[in-house]
Request: fold
Amino acid sequence: MGPGPSNVPPRVLRAMSRPLVGHLDPEFVEVMNEIQELLRRVFQTGNSFTIPLSGTGTAGMEASVANFVEEGESVLIGVNGVFGQRIAEMVRRHGGICTVVSAPFGEPLSRKAMLEAAQKCQPSIIAVVHAETSTGVLQPLEPIREICDRFDSLLLVDAVTSLGGHPVKVDSWGIDICYSGTQKCLSCPPGLSPITLSPKAEAKLKTRTSPCRSWYLDLNLIRSYWGEDRVYHHTAPISMNYALCEALNIIVEEGLEERFNRHRQNHKALVAGIEGMGLQMQVDPDYRLWSLNTVRIPAGVDDGKVRSQLLSQFNLEIGGGLGDLKGKVWRVGLMGENSQAQNVLYFLFALENCLRRQGFHCSQGAGVEAATECYNAPGSLAASREFTA
Ligand SMILES: *Cc1c(COP(=O)(O)O)cnc(C)c1O
Reply:
Protein backbone atom coordinates (compact mmCIF):
# COMPACT_ATOMS: atom_id res chain seq x y z
CA MET A 1 0.00 0.00 0.00
CA GLY A 2 2.83 2.36 -0.85
CA PRO A 3 2.94 4.90 -3.67
CA GLY A 4 3.65 2.13 -6.22
CA PRO A 5 4.50 -0.40 -7.43
CA SER A 6 1.13 -1.91 -6.55
CA ASN A 7 0.43 -5.62 -6.22
CA VAL A 8 0.12 -7.54 -9.46
CA PRO A 9 -2.71 -10.03 -10.09
CA PRO A 10 -1.57 -13.65 -10.63
CA ARG A 11 -3.02 -13.56 -14.15
CA VAL A 12 -0.53 -10.82 -15.05
CA LEU A 13 2.37 -12.72 -13.51
CA ARG A 14 1.37 -15.81 -15.46
CA ALA A 15 1.23 -13.81 -18.69
CA MET A 16 4.83 -12.77 -18.08
CA SER A 17 5.97 -16.36 -17.94
CA ARG A 18 4.73 -17.16 -21.44
CA PRO A 19 7.50 -18.26 -23.83
CA LEU A 20 9.15 -15.49 -25.78
CA VAL A 21 8.58 -14.87 -29.46
CA GLY A 22 10.43 -12.36 -31.62
CA HIS A 23 9.46 -8.71 -31.52
CA LEU A 24 8.38 -8.91 -35.19
CA ASP A 25 6.65 -12.29 -34.89
CA PRO A 26 3.08 -12.21 -36.24
CA GLU A 27 1.84 -13.43 -32.88
CA PHE A 28 3.54 -10.56 -31.10
CA VAL A 29 2.22 -8.09 -33.67
CA GLU A 30 -1.26 -9.22 -32.67
CA VAL A 31 -0.46 -8.55 -29.02
CA MET A 32 0.78 -5.07 -30.01
CA ASN A 33 -2.48 -4.38 -31.82
CA GLU A 34 -4.53 -5.59 -28.88
CA ILE A 35 -2.56 -3.41 -26.44
CA GLN A 36 -3.13 -0.32 -28.57
CA GLU A 37 -6.85 -1.02 -28.76
CA LEU A 38 -7.13 -1.60 -25.01
CA LEU A 39 -5.04 1.47 -24.17
CA ARG A 40 -7.41 3.62 -26.25
CA ARG A 41 -10.29 2.37 -24.12
CA VAL A 42 -8.49 3.04 -20.86
CA PHE A 43 -7.32 6.52 -21.98
CA GLN A 44 -10.87 7.09 -23.34
CA THR A 45 -9.54 8.24 -26.67
CA GLY A 46 -9.72 7.59 -30.39
CA ASN A 47 -6.11 8.78 -30.86
CA SER A 48 -4.35 6.57 -33.37
CA PHE A 49 -0.99 7.24 -31.69
CA THR A 50 -1.55 5.30 -28.47
CA ILE A 51 1.26 2.95 -27.49
CA PRO A 52 3.33 1.75 -24.52
CA LEU A 53 6.89 3.09 -24.49
CA SER A 54 9.66 0.83 -23.28
CA GLY A 55 10.67 2.27 -19.92
CA THR A 56 8.98 3.31 -16.68
CA GLY A 57 6.70 6.31 -16.24
CA THR A 58 9.66 8.66 -16.34
CA ALA A 59 10.34 7.50 -19.91
CA GLY A 60 6.88 8.76 -20.86
CA MET A 61 7.68 12.07 -19.21
CA GLU A 62 11.03 12.33 -20.97
CA ALA A 63 9.53 11.35 -24.33
CA SER A 64 6.82 14.01 -23.95
CA VAL A 65 9.41 16.69 -23.24
CA ALA A 66 12.11 15.54 -25.67
CA ASN A 67 9.71 15.28 -28.62
CA PHE A 68 7.60 18.39 -28.06
CA VAL A 69 9.99 20.92 -26.56
CA GLU A 70 12.36 22.37 -29.11
CA GLU A 71 15.21 24.75 -28.35
CA GLY A 72 13.86 28.09 -27.14
CA GLU A 73 10.26 26.93 -26.89
CA SER A 74 8.15 28.50 -24.12
CA VAL A 75 6.66 25.95 -21.70
CA LEU A 76 4.45 26.69 -18.70
CA ILE A 77 4.57 24.09 -15.92
CA GLY A 78 2.36 23.83 -12.88
CA VAL A 79 4.48 22.57 -10.01
CA ASN A 80 2.83 21.42 -6.78
CA GLY A 81 4.90 18.34 -6.10
CA VAL A 82 7.98 16.34 -6.92
CA PHE A 83 6.79 15.13 -10.33
CA GLY A 84 5.99 18.63 -11.55
CA GLN A 85 9.51 19.60 -10.51
CA ARG A 86 10.85 16.69 -12.53
CA ILE A 87 9.01 17.85 -15.67
CA ALA A 88 10.42 21.38 -15.22
CA GLU A 89 13.95 20.01 -14.87
CA MET A 90 13.55 18.00 -18.07
CA VAL A 91 12.22 21.01 -19.98
CA ARG A 92 15.31 22.98 -18.95
CA ARG A 93 17.63 20.16 -20.00
CA HIS A 94 15.96 19.95 -23.39
CA GLY A 95 16.49 23.65 -24.06
CA GLY A 96 12.96 24.87 -23.36
CA ILE A 97 12.25 28.18 -21.70
CA CYS A 98 10.58 27.18 -18.51
CA THR A 99 7.98 29.22 -16.62
CA VAL A 100 6.97 27.61 -13.36
CA VAL A 101 3.80 28.36 -11.41
CA SER A 102 4.11 26.80 -7.97
CA ALA A 103 1.51 25.87 -5.41
CA PRO A 104 2.26 24.56 -1.92
CA PHE A 105 2.70 20.78 -1.72
CA GLY A 106 -0.74 19.40 -0.89
CA GLU A 107 -2.72 22.05 -2.79
CA PRO A 108 -3.94 22.25 -6.41
CA LEU A 109 -2.66 24.88 -8.86
CA SER A 110 -4.25 28.31 -8.89
CA ARG A 111 -6.13 28.89 -12.14
CA LYS A 112 -5.54 32.63 -11.84
CA ALA A 113 -1.79 32.24 -11.36
CA MET A 114 -1.60 29.85 -14.33
CA LEU A 115 -3.57 32.26 -16.52
CA GLU A 116 -1.43 35.26 -15.56
CA ALA A 117 1.75 33.33 -16.23
CA ALA A 118 0.43 32.15 -19.60
CA GLN A 119 -0.33 35.75 -20.58
CA LYS A 120 3.28 36.65 -19.90
CA CYS A 121 5.06 33.65 -21.41
CA GLN A 122 2.70 32.70 -24.28
CA PRO A 123 3.47 29.00 -23.90
CA SER A 124 3.32 26.54 -26.74
CA ILE A 125 2.89 23.79 -24.14
CA ILE A 126 1.27 23.79 -20.70
CA ALA A 127 2.25 20.81 -18.53
CA VAL A 128 0.59 19.62 -15.33
CA VAL A 129 0.50 16.49 -13.19
CA HIS A 130 -3.04 15.10 -12.96
CA ALA A 131 -2.34 12.96 -9.89
CA GLU A 132 0.58 14.18 -7.77
CA THR A 133 1.78 11.02 -6.09
CA SER A 134 4.10 13.02 -3.86
CA THR A 135 1.22 14.95 -2.25
CA GLY A 136 -2.07 13.15 -2.94
CA VAL A 137 -3.57 16.03 -4.95
CA LEU A 138 -5.88 15.53 -7.94
CA GLN A 139 -5.49 18.46 -10.32
CA PRO A 140 -8.70 19.45 -12.16
CA LEU A 141 -7.84 19.64 -15.86
CA GLU A 142 -10.75 21.60 -17.36
CA PRO A 143 -9.49 25.01 -16.13
CA ILE A 144 -6.04 24.23 -17.51
CA ARG A 145 -7.55 23.22 -20.87
CA GLU A 146 -9.38 26.58 -21.04
CA ILE A 147 -6.07 28.38 -20.62
CA CYS A 148 -4.52 26.22 -23.33
CA ASP A 149 -7.35 27.17 -25.69
CA ARG A 150 -6.72 30.88 -25.19
CA PHE A 151 -3.07 30.58 -26.12
CA ASP A 152 -3.33 27.70 -28.58
CA SER A 153 -1.02 25.66 -26.34
CA LEU A 154 -0.72 21.90 -26.25
CA LEU A 155 -1.87 20.34 -22.97
CA LEU A 156 0.66 17.86 -21.57
CA VAL A 157 -0.59 15.71 -18.69
CA ASP A 158 1.16 13.26 -16.37
CA ALA A 159 -1.46 10.59 -15.58
CA VAL A 160 0.89 8.07 -14.01
CA THR A 161 -1.09 7.69 -10.77
CA SER A 162 -4.55 8.37 -12.17
CA LEU A 163 -4.85 6.10 -15.23
CA GLY A 164 -6.88 3.04 -14.25
CA GLY A 165 -7.95 4.53 -10.90
CA HIS A 166 -9.52 7.90 -11.76
CA PRO A 167 -11.21 8.88 -15.01
CA VAL A 168 -8.66 10.18 -17.53
CA LYS A 169 -10.78 11.39 -20.45
CA VAL A 170 -8.16 12.25 -23.00
CA ASP A 171 -10.56 13.21 -25.79
CA SER A 172 -13.33 14.99 -23.93
CA TRP A 173 -10.85 16.89 -21.74
CA GLY A 174 -8.76 17.86 -24.76
CA ILE A 175 -5.44 16.44 -23.54
CA ASP A 176 -2.83 16.54 -26.32
CA ILE A 177 -0.02 14.53 -24.77
CA CYS A 178 -0.76 12.10 -21.96
CA TYR A 179 1.52 9.48 -20.45
CA SER A 180 1.26 6.99 -17.62
CA GLY A 181 3.13 4.08 -16.04
CA THR A 182 2.24 0.44 -15.59
CA GLN A 183 2.94 -0.09 -11.89
CA LYS A 184 0.43 2.24 -10.29
CA CYS A 185 -3.32 1.88 -10.93
CA LEU A 186 -2.82 -0.49 -13.88
CA SER A 187 -1.37 -3.08 -11.46
CA CYS A 188 1.31 -4.39 -13.75
CA PRO A 189 5.04 -4.51 -12.95
CA PRO A 190 7.08 -1.36 -13.69
CA GLY A 191 8.63 -1.21 -17.14
CA LEU A 192 6.28 0.33 -19.69
CA SER A 193 4.90 3.81 -20.12
CA PRO A 194 1.63 4.12 -22.05
CA ILE A 195 1.40 7.36 -24.02
CA THR A 196 -1.22 8.89 -26.31
CA LEU A 197 -1.04 11.88 -28.68
CA SER A 198 -3.91 13.95 -30.06
CA PRO A 199 -3.99 14.54 -33.84
CA LYS A 200 -2.78 18.09 -33.11
CA ALA A 201 0.22 16.81 -31.14
CA GLU A 202 0.96 14.25 -33.84
CA ALA A 203 0.92 16.98 -36.47
CA LYS A 204 3.39 19.00 -34.43
CA LEU A 205 5.63 15.98 -34.12
CA LYS A 206 5.78 15.63 -37.88
CA THR A 207 6.76 19.24 -38.43
CA ARG A 208 9.65 19.43 -35.96
CA THR A 209 12.47 21.49 -37.42
CA SER A 210 15.21 19.47 -35.73
CA PRO A 211 15.28 15.76 -34.93
CA CYS A 212 14.42 14.76 -31.35
CA ARG A 213 17.60 14.75 -29.28
CA SER A 214 16.76 11.41 -27.73
CA TRP A 215 17.09 8.65 -30.32
CA TYR A 216 15.64 5.97 -28.07
CA LEU A 217 12.53 8.00 -27.24
CA ASP A 218 12.07 9.56 -30.70
CA LEU A 219 8.33 9.11 -31.21
CA ASN A 220 8.61 9.53 -34.98
CA LEU A 221 10.91 6.50 -35.10
CA ILE A 222 8.91 4.51 -32.56
CA ARG A 223 5.76 5.17 -34.58
CA SER A 224 7.28 3.22 -37.48
CA TYR A 225 7.59 0.16 -35.25
CA TRP A 226 4.15 0.38 -33.64
CA GLY A 227 2.39 1.57 -36.83
CA GLU A 228 1.81 -0.22 -40.12
CA ASP A 229 5.45 -0.42 -41.15
CA ARG A 230 6.73 -2.54 -38.21
CA VAL A 231 10.25 -1.27 -38.76
CA TYR A 232 12.72 -2.43 -36.14
CA HIS A 233 13.68 0.39 -33.78
CA HIS A 234 14.56 -1.36 -30.52
CA THR A 235 13.67 -4.79 -29.22
CA ALA A 236 10.33 -4.46 -27.45
CA PRO A 237 10.34 -5.92 -23.92
CA ILE A 238 8.17 -8.87 -24.93
CA SER A 239 7.24 -10.18 -21.47
CA MET A 240 6.32 -6.73 -20.22
CA ASN A 241 3.98 -6.31 -23.15
CA TYR A 242 2.33 -9.65 -22.40
CA ALA A 243 1.85 -8.41 -18.84
CA LEU A 244 0.37 -5.09 -19.90
CA CYS A 245 -2.00 -6.77 -22.33
CA GLU A 246 -3.31 -8.99 -19.54
CA ALA A 247 -3.53 -6.12 -17.03
CA LEU A 248 -5.54 -4.04 -19.52
CA ASN A 249 -7.85 -6.96 -20.22
CA ILE A 250 -8.50 -7.28 -16.49
CA ILE A 251 -9.39 -3.57 -16.37
CA VAL A 252 -11.77 -3.80 -19.31
CA GLU A 253 -13.39 -6.93 -17.84
CA GLU A 254 -14.02 -5.09 -14.59
CA GLY A 255 -15.34 -2.03 -16.45
CA LEU A 256 -13.92 1.46 -16.18
CA GLU A 257 -16.84 2.94 -14.26
CA GLU A 258 -16.88 0.02 -11.82
CA ARG A 259 -13.17 0.37 -11.31
CA PHE A 260 -13.33 4.10 -10.64
CA ASN A 261 -16.22 3.52 -8.28
CA ARG A 262 -14.22 0.90 -6.40
CA HIS A 263 -11.29 3.30 -6.04
CA ARG A 264 -13.59 6.08 -4.84
CA GLN A 265 -15.36 3.93 -2.27
CA ASN A 266 -12.24 2.43 -0.78
CA HIS A 267 -10.73 5.90 -0.55
CA LYS A 268 -13.85 7.17 1.21
CA ALA A 269 -13.74 4.30 3.68
CA LEU A 270 -10.06 4.92 4.36
CA VAL A 271 -10.72 8.60 5.04
CA ALA A 272 -13.62 7.71 7.34
CA GLY A 273 -11.33 5.33 9.23
CA ILE A 274 -8.48 7.82 9.48
CA GLU A 275 -10.77 10.54 10.77
CA GLY A 276 -12.51 8.05 13.05
CA MET A 277 -9.14 7.42 14.70
CA GLY A 278 -8.71 11.13 15.29
CA LEU A 279 -6.16 11.68 12.52
CA GLN A 280 -6.40 14.16 9.64
CA MET A 281 -5.98 14.02 5.89
CA GLN A 282 -3.52 16.45 4.33
CA VAL A 283 -5.50 17.43 1.24
CA ASP A 284 -8.76 19.38 0.98
CA PRO A 285 -11.70 16.96 0.28
CA ASP A 286 -12.35 18.43 -3.21
CA TYR A 287 -8.84 17.60 -4.44
CA ARG A 288 -8.11 14.24 -2.87
CA LEU A 289 -6.76 11.41 -4.96
CA TRP A 290 -8.50 8.06 -4.51
CA SER A 291 -5.34 6.18 -5.41
CA LEU A 292 -2.91 7.93 -3.06
CA ASN A 293 -3.95 9.14 0.36
CA THR A 294 -1.84 11.53 2.40
CA VAL A 295 -2.42 11.25 6.13
CA ARG A 296 -0.95 13.81 8.54
CA ILE A 297 1.40 12.28 11.07
CA PRO A 298 0.14 13.29 14.53
CA ALA A 299 2.49 15.24 16.80
CA GLY A 300 4.75 13.08 18.93
CA VAL A 301 4.55 10.05 16.64
CA ASP A 302 7.76 8.78 15.04
CA ASP A 303 7.30 8.46 11.26
CA GLY A 304 10.07 5.93 10.69
CA LYS A 305 9.14 3.70 13.63
CA VAL A 306 5.52 3.42 12.55
CA ARG A 307 6.46 2.54 8.99
CA SER A 308 9.03 -0.02 10.03
CA GLN A 309 6.62 -1.67 12.46
CA LEU A 310 3.96 -1.79 9.74
CA LEU A 311 6.43 -3.53 7.48
CA SER A 312 8.01 -5.94 9.95
CA GLN A 313 4.98 -6.86 12.01
CA PHE A 314 2.15 -6.48 9.52
CA ASN A 315 3.94 -7.07 6.22
CA LEU A 316 2.47 -3.77 5.05
CA GLU A 317 4.29 -1.04 3.18
CA ILE A 318 3.25 2.60 3.08
CA GLY A 319 5.23 5.62 1.87
CA GLY A 320 6.68 8.58 3.74
CA GLY A 321 6.35 12.21 2.70
CA LEU A 322 8.51 13.75 -0.02
CA GLY A 323 9.97 17.24 -0.36
CA ASP A 324 8.16 19.78 1.82
CA LEU A 325 5.99 17.00 3.27
CA LYS A 326 8.86 14.80 4.42
CA GLY A 327 8.23 13.63 7.99
CA LYS A 328 4.80 15.30 7.96
CA VAL A 329 2.63 12.78 6.14
CA TRP A 330 2.23 9.14 5.27
CA ARG A 331 1.32 8.20 1.73
CA VAL A 332 -1.10 5.31 1.57
CA GLY A 333 -1.64 3.82 -1.87
CA LEU A 334 -4.96 2.27 -2.91
CA MET A 335 -3.93 1.63 -6.48
CA GLY A 336 -5.54 -0.84 -8.85
CA GLU A 337 -5.41 -4.29 -7.33
CA ASN A 338 -4.60 -2.81 -3.91
CA SER A 339 -7.82 -0.83 -3.71
CA GLN A 340 -9.72 -3.44 -1.69
CA ALA A 341 -11.85 -3.20 1.42
CA GLN A 342 -9.83 -5.90 3.12
CA ASN A 343 -6.67 -3.81 2.66
CA VAL A 344 -8.32 -0.68 4.02
CA LEU A 345 -9.57 -2.50 7.11
CA TYR A 346 -6.28 -4.30 7.69
CA PHE A 347 -4.31 -1.08 7.34
CA LEU A 348 -6.52 0.76 9.85
CA PHE A 349 -6.18 -2.11 12.31
CA ALA A 350 -2.40 -2.21 11.89
CA LEU A 351 -1.96 1.55 12.06
CA GLU A 352 -3.93 1.75 15.30
CA ASN A 353 -1.63 -0.87 16.79
CA CYS A 354 1.49 1.05 15.73
CA LEU A 355 0.13 4.38 16.97
CA ARG A 356 -0.65 2.90 20.38
CA ARG A 357 2.91 1.76 20.72
CA GLN A 358 3.92 5.38 20.10
CA GLY A 359 1.67 6.54 22.92
CA PHE A 360 -0.96 8.06 20.61
CA HIS A 361 -4.37 7.61 22.13
CA CYS A 362 -7.37 6.58 20.06
CA SER A 363 -10.38 4.56 21.13
CA GLN A 364 -10.01 0.91 20.30
CA GLY A 365 -11.28 -0.16 16.90
CA ALA A 366 -12.58 3.33 16.06
CA GLY A 367 -10.90 3.44 12.64
CA VAL A 368 -12.10 0.02 11.53
CA GLU A 369 -15.58 0.76 12.81
CA ALA A 370 -15.86 4.07 10.93
CA ALA A 371 -14.64 2.46 7.71
CA THR A 372 -17.05 -0.47 8.13
CA GLU A 373 -19.94 1.94 8.55
CA CYS A 374 -18.88 3.62 5.36
CA TYR A 375 -18.90 0.29 3.49
CA ASN A 376 -22.31 -0.58 4.88
CA ALA A 377 -23.87 2.76 3.94
CA PRO A 378 -26.63 2.44 1.32
CA GLY A 379 -25.31 2.43 -2.23
CA SER A 380 -21.74 1.48 -1.37
CA LEU A 381 -19.86 -1.73 -1.97
CA ALA A 382 -20.84 -4.10 0.80
CA ALA A 383 -17.62 -6.00 0.62
CA SER A 384 -14.40 -6.14 -1.33
CA ARG A 385 -14.46 -7.75 -4.74
CA GLU A 386 -11.89 -10.17 -5.91
CA PHE A 387 -10.62 -9.83 -9.47
CA THR A 388 -7.64 -12.11 -9.31
CA ALA A 389 -9.19 -15.55 -9.78
C1 LIG B 1 5.64 7.21 -10.32
C2 LIG B 1 5.44 8.50 -11.04
C3 LIG B 1 6.27 8.92 -12.08
C4 LIG B 1 7.53 8.19 -12.47
O1 LIG B 1 7.31 6.93 -12.85
P1 LIG B 1 8.51 5.82 -12.74
O2 LIG B 1 7.79 4.61 -13.17
O3 LIG B 1 8.96 5.82 -11.33
O4 LIG B 1 9.57 6.22 -13.69
C5 LIG B 1 5.97 10.09 -12.74
N1 LIG B 1 4.91 10.83 -12.39
C6 LIG B 1 4.11 10.49 -11.37
C7 LIG B 1 2.95 11.35 -11.01
C8 LIG B 1 4.35 9.31 -10.67
O5 LIG B 1 3.56 8.96 -9.66
In short: The chain has a mean pLDDT of 95. The pocket of pyridoxal-5'-phosphate is lined by residues 4, 56-58, 61, 83, 129, 131, 133, 158, 160-161, 181, 190 (CB under 6 Å). The domain at 10-253 is CATH 3.40.640.10 (Aspartate Aminotransferase; domain 2).
